[in-house]
């Protein structure tokens, strides 16, 4: 890196304001990653993020506050709002916005064009409020794969798309670190999908909460193993600098040291603590200053819209003209004073290219580095479905699936081995079921069929109090189904064939949200829990027939 002499300051200032110059020419230069830094593809100037989180009803952890539903407002599909807000974003010298959920079926061309003309890039989360990798009931299945790839399809053609987040604060405590394996699988498959579709190279990263107990393990885990399963950039949602703090006492110094040898770009995916009232943004000078700019590529301030959490830079009432909050002026002033030291791509030779060592399994870390959850494969799931003779009735609500899973897996863990999502059930030999990536209906059908097949002497084996029924199974699978089912074996095999679909919307279950949230129980269900479950089910009128 160059020092803070006059020449380097001029260069840094030039790179810090380059996006607006490009915008005036009516084009936007795609961003590329080299080592741990971002660069403009054409001129090789280093890119620092001056970002703002831009989505109404986005909660403090980057979630969209909709009470658990899948209803949200796509900020990139509202051209009127974009035209209203972009002038205010440019006053803050914004060159990146982060959006938390977009509707891939809507048209984003007007907003994306206006943003490009203003020199503003976009980082989009791939999830939505109702379709995401759940911390406590993780899944990586057909429905989520289709949701994520649909977002990629919708945005990949815009050159001002900077990258995608495959997860946001999924593991936020030691007791849900197993979910990180599903994030790593999502990173693997979205990177693979982008390559398979021959799209331009677009980074896939992760946004993390700042959780001290798992901070190092999580960063190492998502940057370990193979390049194909590792993140392309790391986003930190960090709120530790509050009021009159310092580089040392805020923890910024420690975080900078921790990421000094990280092999991919790192930046603040959210920042701006408000516990001390009106924010003065003292941390801005440090983030873009000599201590941090060699490690972190800037950050994204949370957030543009004023909500009940009081993080807003502006207040917007309906379609009215935005009213600037005190935080707006303070951020504008702070950003105007910074000029980070930069380096040109052709003179930058990264030495921190090695991936991290994968963390070992312990009381604070429960995600195996290998194997990862299987690649979602609708062809395999469809073939499996055709091979079954006992399936759930279509009239059964997905709300009842959890009870059925709990009963079957509690009675016979072997019936659920093929849909096992607990990768460390056997710590000495981590594994996932071959059908663990199918949607919830297909998974339940597999479990019901396996359980019923084991009860051959019972004529009511395929009944489950009227919840299941028989179907004509395909006796001899042919073509690709034959090969896929042979690889899956009894549900515990490894399928190496790649999926042929993606980017669509699955119709195999009545609710994509439901399939993402229904969890196949841990096999440590136990007889006591089983008896309690049966008693409760009987009281509620939903008791299963004990076979």
TrEMBL record:
SUPFAM superfamilies: (Trans)glycosidases
Pfam families: Glyco_hydro_72, X8
Main location: membrane
Entry GO MF terms: 1,3-beta-glucanosyltransferase activity
Domain X8 residue range list: 388-483
Keywords: Disulfide bond, Glycoprotein, GPI-anchor, Lipoprotein, Membrane, Signal, Transferase, Transmembrane, Transmembrane helix
Gene Ontology CC terms, in alphabetical order: plasma membrane; side of membrane
Keyword field contains Signal: yes
Its EC number(s): 2.4.1.-
Subcellular localization: Cell membrane
Signal sequence annotation: 1-23
Topology with respect to the bilayer: Lipid-anchor; GPI-anchor
Membrane-spanning intervals of the chain: 525-546
Keyword match Protease: no
Family label: Belongs to the glycosyl hydrolase 72 family.
Protein name, UniProt field: 1,3-beta-glucanosyltransferase
Naturally occurring in which organism (per UniProt): Viridothelium virens (Speckled blister lichen)
